[in-house]
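Let's practice the habit of predicting before peeking. Look at the sequence and jot down your guess about where helices and strands might fall. Then scroll down.
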Amino acid sequence: MNRNTIKEMECFYELLRQYRRNRGMSQEDLAEKANLHRTYISELENGKKNPSLKTLLQLAKALHLEVWQLLYFRDFPGISGASGFDKLPLN
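Done guessing? Here is the structure:
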């Protein structure tokens, strides 16, 4: 795996955590709404698991997002000269 791919994966894990927290949701809340197990949410956020497309769709729906928003790294620190979370569409 190349360095950019690893960075992008780390961005996904952090984005998921930030979206969940910005919505005032616990891992258990998100798991319930996405029909997933709480430990799986923890493993995703900690980079121990990688989601399938089906899981991405479930997470996006539970967070009231479009799937692309979970994968939007352009303005993420360390990706393409990005500057930080302040520019991410986290609402």
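How did you do? The domain at 3-75 is CATH 1.10.260.40 (434 Repressor (Amino-terminal Domain)).
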